[in-house]
TrEMBL record:
Residues 17-30 have a biased composition (Pro residues). This is BTB domain-containing protein. Residues 1-36 are annotated as: Disordered. It comes from the Eukaryota.
Amino acid sequence: MAKYSSKPAAHVVENQSPPPLQPQPQPQSLPPLRFAPSFDTRQPGDIILQASDAAAVACYFRLSLLANISTFFAELPPPGPSDLYDGIAILRLHSTSSMGLLLFLSLVRSTTTLEAYAFDDPHAPPAIGIQSILDAAGLARNYAAPLVFRLLVSGLDGLRETEPALEFAIWTIGGSEKHTKEAAERTIKIKYDLTKVDPDIVKAVKAYAPASWMQMQDLHLRGANAMRRWWDWAPEEAPTEVGDTACPTCAPEERDRISKGLVELFAECDSVEAVMAVYGGDLGSDCKSCETARTRAYYPRVQWLCDFATKYDLKGDELGNYVADSWVIWDNGMNDS
Ligand SMILES: [Zn+2]
């Protein structure tokens, strides 16, 4: 309180007129940078990387290490006079958050150590959050550092379960079709509710790969409606021709049973897994040859259902393709006997 009482009442009056200007010495030194604690020591061969958000964190980092994992840094032209800070090249990274930059550099640095870099639970602060992971992925994309996507995914660890769409996001930002497909199909396998995905993930995927997000939604929509589609055509499509694969002894009774079986065998099925389980089990024919005939007869429809419900990159009229395929199988079967 002494602080306030020591001020004379006249001070208030004094403030009504502008205070006299004191000549300020012009700083000859550079504007100070805010270096991140683990990247604040300058080593030979370092450059400075600076984030572009409000925190604008700066980091010393070895250029040769970045050049090893990124064509952007490998082809970085020599710095001009305006790219220098205290005699060292400084690169201000556009649309890069400080946390994203720190994570990115920590991952790159981990390639020189035995220990993999692992994240903590992002839902428990002050751990690295989902946004930082997405930012680091964006950084890896913008600065052509594909290895960082793999490092990000391997760092996810338990987070794969907590937020399965995150792995999908990393791979689709990275542009890997193969890994994107696998990660997307995994969300179906574990029955992930896509409507519960973290909004930051949706935003990032839409920004970097809008088509992937639509495809992911399409997959989940198909997964949710697959059984309805199955029952739409299963009864009426029970085809008479599939019965022709029955052996001469059992036909025509078996022919009839196969057709009916498509409905009856799968009558209790309310999920793709249930259909697969029935199909993988005893199809109910006493005759070995006709049991095989049933397997062949139901194959196209079961395979279609499975693909429709679980394939990320389903294209065209898959049922049509499988029916056509089954005719090939059927023809071969007939030729063998
Ligand atoms: Zn038979």
